[in-house]
Amino acid sequence: MSAEPTSMLRRPLILLLLAGLTIFLGLVITAAIMMRDQIYQTALDPRIPYQTYTAPPAPDYAEASAWARLDPIDPDDPDAPAVFFIHPTTYDGGEHWNAPFDRAQEAEELQNLILPNYAEPFAAEASLAAPHYRQAGLYAFMNNREDALRARMFAYKDVERAFSVFAQSIGEERPFLIVGVGQGALHGLGLLMTQLAPDEGLRARLVAAYLLEAPTPLDLFENALSGLQPCNNADAVRCVISYNSASSRERKRIETLTERSMAWTPRGELGYVAGRGLVCVNPLLWTTAEDYAPARLHRGGAAAEALAPGDAPSPLSAQTGAQCQNGVLMIEEPRSAVLRRPGRLGEDRRIAPFNLFYFDLQADAQRRQTALAEILAEERRWAPDLAPPEEVEVAPVRPID
Questions:
Q1: Which of 78, 80, 360, 395 lies at a 20 to 30 A Cα distance from 262?
Q2: What is the C-alpha to C-alpha distance for residues 5 and 288, in angstroms, rounded to an integer?
């Protein structure tokens, strides 16, 4: 048999093998794309049971290093408000269930992106206190294992300690705001339940609590938060503002927010939010109604990066309409590309690197600060309550000898 026929037989075989290899690689790549979030989640698993996990050292909130930002408090102006800001998740996971509070990578993201976009809108006319804390990693929010829940509750204890220092530092008269974003909103909700709900004096000085991009169940206001209510109009104070934004194309994010997420229960545990109803305050209308707000009402979003405290980003206004639907703030696709969510792994659990309602939140916070200042001034004019009456025993009359 000549070499030429043998070569002719090999050629189709090689082509067939190449075609099979191409199909196999295509299937592998397709599967990897379809399962990229699961693969990413597996890569972030600390692979150690929480009961044997040793957490990083705790921050000392008496030290400046424990705060991402700590503005000075003016002792001569007790009416100037203060803001307690709880940052969202900035640590993905992998090595730790709870991140060291002083890791350089997370500190950089906090300073360059999170504070300029999400804290600065509230600091225009207020002093800002933003604690570091041993945050639960992103992995702890990508599943609801017992280990993941313990990591979230562990992080809350740091926030609770930081708030105690904050509350003491601002004194007993100064009004304040609580602002939490993402994971920070979960911890802010915990503060409302454990610190403010039992303390009428603290509640009286609360301008508002802004719990953004994390579910706030409605059933909490029937018991654990009975002294507070969602803000149902633009002038309400001592109330709670919460929303979770998503566009109609983000079906997976909507499912995550309304069915797979967990929040505090009235018993102080973490439970699923499905079926509990969620607070949705429309940041264009500032009501809990399901009315549609057109884009012309949008004051402006911002994609702030590496701005110094006090520096204002450029407003991008009239970018989106908004409507509360079944506890979710449904938004329209922003016209500007910088206000659209990037396609990052685990994006359904992440906070966007921009603030779509930056200038809406800023104006709202200033308006409510003014409203509470007027209420507090009026309340100080009231006469203090009279003490309860005391019974006086009649002394017997004795004749003088």
A1: 360
A2: 80
Residue (of 324, 311, 220) closest to 273 by Cα position: 220
**Which residues lie across from 271 on neighbouring strands?**
263
Please give the structure tokens belonging to residue 338: 């910088």
Apex CA 326: angle with CA 324 and CA 328, to 5°?
Answer: 55
Strand partners, 128: 83
| Number of helices (H), then strands (E), in the chain | 8, 11
**3-class DSSP state for residue 68?**
strand
In whole angstroms, give the CA distance from residue 130 to residue 266.
Answer: 27
pLDDT > 90? residue 366: yes
Tokens 């304040």 sit on residue: 176
Gap between the Cα atoms of 241 and 79, Å rounded: 22
The average pLDDT across 38-64 equals 94
β-partners of residue 239 are 208
d(CA 198, CA 228): 11
> Which candidate, 234, 212, 233, 209, places its Cα nearest to that of 221?
209
Place 32 in a pLDDT band, splitting at 50, 70 and 90.
very low
- Return the closest-CA partner of residue 243 out of 364, 152, 123: 364
Question: Which is more confidently placed, 324 or 14?
Answer: 324
| pTM confidence score | 0.88
Separation of alpha carbons 256 and 279, rounded Å: 16
